[in-house]
Amino acid sequence: MWNPFRRKEGQVKNLQQPVSRGGWTPMFSYVHEPYAGAWQQNMEIKPKTVLSYYAVFSCISLIASDIAKMPPRLMKQDSNGVRKEIKTGKIAALYSRPNAFQNRIQFFEHWLNSKLCEGNTVALKIRNNRGEITELRLLDWNKVTPLVADDGSVFYQINPDNMAGIDSTVTVPAREVIHDRFNCLFHPLIGLSPIYAAGLAAMQGHHIQESSAYFFRNGGKPSGVIEVPGSITEENARKIKENWDTGYTGENAGKTAILSNGAKYV
């Protein structure tokens, strides 16, 4: 099989440099936080939490699924300048079945999900012995690192990915991948997900839902204070609190409580 990772002897030495990073500049992702030092106060924006928020999840799902349903059309312009759709041939077949395990809709939905969630989508070109593209396999963006050589050439370092048929770390030139990206605010090779701007709002909504869930789990009753006349020891206060939490919160919320010795629940 034709191997796109194979290079001439004089080029192999250059492609070994990513191991030591010598002469290369990796483009790392950014740490997102609402303000400087927020992560030290447990206020970092967690991607998994943001994606689990119903509004973000719904937007991504609807956008990706709707666009994936749109069939691509391969057009060819004849000598008269009239464009006609090509429905047969190797390229047309690649449109309908991009790879062995995804159909067209699944492929483009995966494409859009990666772009919306990560800001980047990378597709690896799989070729046959004649160098013809037979498959397009989408890569996990977290396993891909764009690299820039001293002369400005762009390469992509790909970590092992079974779905892409890569069992060891390889570095391929930019021509062997399709890198779709948008919102390149910090670097032209690194896209930025819309979640970058919606993250804090999503975290706020998540915490509101979480607080509401705790509130209704307690029977929709707000917490209160038990007033005891006089003074009590720390040990007795702890026991009173534990007994109250066990007997009158959660599934037991709303049950009738009995207080003695002048104690009041406010």
Give the key terms:
single chain, 266 residues, alpha+beta, 2 domains, 4-stranded antiparallel beta sheet, 3-stranded antiparallel beta sheet, 11 strands, 33% helix
Task: Explain this structure.
By secondary structure, this protein is α+β, with helices and mostly antiparallel strands. The protein folds into two domains: about 10-200, no CATH class; about 220-265. It has seven helices and eleven strands. The strands form four sheets. Strands 1-6-7-8 form a four-stranded antiparallel beta sheet, with no helix packed on it. Strands 5-4-9 form a three-stranded antiparallel beta sheet. It is elongated, with a radius of gyration of 29 Å. The protein starts with 8 loop residues before the first helix and ends with a strand. The model is unreliable at about 10-30 (pLDDT under 50). This is Phage portal protein. InterPro entries: Phage/GTA_portal, Portal_HK97.
Question: What is the total number of structural domains?
Answer: 2
Q: Kindly report the oligomeric state of this protein.
A: single chain
**Lateral arrangement of strands in the main beta sheet:** 1-6-7-8
What is the overall silhouette? elongated
How would you classify the helix and strand content by structural class? alpha+beta
The helix-strand sequence is HEHHEEHHEEEEEEHEHE
Extract low-pLDDT stretches: 8-31
- Strand percentage lies at 15-25%
Overall pLDDT confidence:
81
Largest sheet: 4 strands, antiparallel
Distance N to C terminus: 78 Å
Return Rg in Å: 29 Å
Q: Helix share of residues?
A: 25-40%
